[in-house]
Write a structure and sequence with these properties.
Blueprint: E1 2-5, E2 10-13, E3 16-19, E4 25-28, E5 34-38, E6 53-55, E7 64-66, E8 99-104, E9 107-112, E10 119-120, H1 121-131, E11 134-137, E12 140-143, E13 146-147, H2 153-163, E14 171-181, E15 186-190, H3 212-215, H4 224-234, E16 238-243, E17 249-252, H5 261-264, E18 270-278
């Protein structure tokens, strides 16, 4: 409820009058009530399973402070809102997902681990894109989510320290390092504008960089039955940041962890995933009065 502070000693209306002292407050209605959702973790994103209330202003005592109901995990401030097609917990339909969220600077990350089934590299690319918002560029929608990239050796070290909170060996996460070139000739580089020289911050797991042939042993680009498949998958080919069985970090294929690969389900094509997106601003996903639409949201997800 809002209040109007009166400066007049009294007000007269329609044949009657009210004696009101100067400085008293008279309760009045607000111009328009907004929807407020419970925000238990205080990250600005509201619990979608809670019952929103229409209030003139936020109620901190009841944790009704969020103006959207999009939080993917309202008990974890490191996991923010659903601005794409899905939340990290929705990665696999009926399978329980073990994942951890992590915010650093202007970026938000999540990584899968534990009993979460390893993901094929092309599915990993699609999953990260679907988690992030999409911005419109002309007639095209540009995904803002992707497998993680890094701008400095310090950022790589920070992330490795974060990943070591869930595993100390035998762990591999696919990241945003792709093959650039043809099947027979090329090199590895970041999927975005990150400095490719940063790849020297890693040692390659096998002592040298893998090639597409290492990913698909037994397939031959000269075989017409294999050629189309190989060319179609080349653009989504990704490397992994690998914590091998000895507890050392390297860059390679998920199966490069060592003997534990078989028990973990890692193959040259399948690993856990490390996704990144720009940290979204909850204020830009505020629900308008009277409906569930978002107003002013810069990241618009195209309809399926």
């Amino acid at each position: 409820m809002r209040f109007l502070t009166l400066t007049a000693l009294f007000a007269v209306g329609c044949g009657s009058h009210w004696n009101i002292r100067k400085g008293d407050e008279l309760a009045i209605g607000c111009a328009g009530k907004a929807k407020y959702y419970e925000d238990a973790d205080g990250d600005g994103w509201g619990n979608p399973d809670g019952e929103p209330q229409r209030l003139c202003e936020a109620d901190a005592e009841l944790n009704l402070t969020a103006t959207n109901g999009r939080d993917c995990a309202d008990d974890d401030a490191q996991v923010t809102g659903k601005v794409g097609w899905w939340c990290p917990a929705d990665l696999s339909g009926e399978t329980t997902i073990e994942y951890t969220g992590f915010i650093s600077g202007e970026s938000e990350y999540f990584y899968t681990w534990g009993t979460t089934e390893p993901t094929w590299y092309d599915t990993a690319v699609e999953s990260c894109e679907s988690w992030g918002a999409h911005t419109k560029d002309g007639e095209d929608y540009v995904p803002q989510g992707h497998l993680a990239t890094f701008e400095s050796a310090a950022a790589i070290a920070e992330m490795q320290g974060q990943l070591e909170t869930v595993a100390t060996s035998g762990y591999a996460v696919l990241i945003g390092v792709r093959w650039v070139g043809t099947w027979d000739e090329g090199d590895w580089g970041w999927v975005d504008q990150s400095d490719d020289s940063l790849l020297t911050a890693f040692d390659f797991c096998a002592g040298e960089a893998p090639t597409p042939d290492d990913v698909y042993e037994g397939l031959f680009i000269g075989d017409t039955g294999h050629a189309q498949f190989l060319e179609d998958t080349l653009r989504d080919l990704r490397l992994a940041m690998v914590l091998d069985d000895e507890g050392s970090w390297c860059l390679g294929l998920p199966s490069d962890v060592g003997e534990s690969a078989e028990d973990s389900g890692y193959t040259p094509q399948e690993g856990h995933i490390l996704c990144e997106r720009p940290q979204p601003d909850p204020a830009e996903y505020e629900e308008s009065q009277g409906n569930e639409e978002t107003t002013g949201a810069p990241g618009t997800t195209p309809e399926e």
